[in-house]
Design goal:
elongated
C-alpha cells in the first residue's frame, strides 16, 4: 500500500514541478515525467500480478480439493506429515548409531521444524 501511495505522490509532485519555471529550466517535459512515473509504478504492477497469481493458485487448489474424493484429499494431506516422520526417524537413527550429521542435514531438519512449528503458526495468526 505504501508503494502505491509513494509512486502516485512522486509522480504528481514531479508532474507539477515539470510545469514550474525551475522544471522548465531543467528541461523536464511530459515524456520524462511519464517515464519516471512508469518506472515507479513498475513494482506496484509486479506486486499486483504476483498476488493475482497466488490467488489463482489458491483457487485452483480449492477447486481440486472440492472435485477430488475424500480418499484422494486424505492422501494429499498425509504427504507432509509422512515426510516429517521420515526425516525425524532419520535424525534419530543417525543419533543412535553415532552417524555424524552435516550442516545440510541439520538444515533439512531445521527447515521441517520451522515449517511445522514456526512459519505456520505466524501464518495462522496473521490470517485470523
Amino acid at each position: 500500500m505504501f508503494k502505491i501511495l509513494t509512486a502516485g505522490l512522486v509522480g504528481k509532485a514531479l508532474s507539477s514541478f515539470a510545469k514550474s519555471k525551475k522544471g522548465i529550466d531543467l528541461g523536464l517535459n511530459d515524456e520524462i515525467v511519464k517515464a519516471v512515473s512508469e518506472y515507479l509504478e513498475r513494482d506496484v504492477k509486479l506486486e499486483k500480478e504476483i498476488l493475482s497469481q497466488f490467488e489463482s493458485a489458491r483457487d485452483h487448489d480449492l477447486n481440486m480439493a472440492n472435485k477430488n474424493s475424500n480418499i484422494i484429499n486424505n492422501i494429499r494431506g498425509i504427504v507432509r506429515p509422512v515426510c516429517t516422520f521420515i526425516a525425524f526417524a532419520w535424525y534419530l537413527y543417525a543419533k543412535i548409531n553415532n552417524i555424524i550429521l552435516t550442516v545440510e542435514d541439520y538444515t533439512i531438519i531445521g527447515g521441517i521444524l520451522a515449517f511445522w512449528f514456526g512459519f505456520r503458526s505466524i501464518d495462522k495468526k496473521s490470517s485470523s
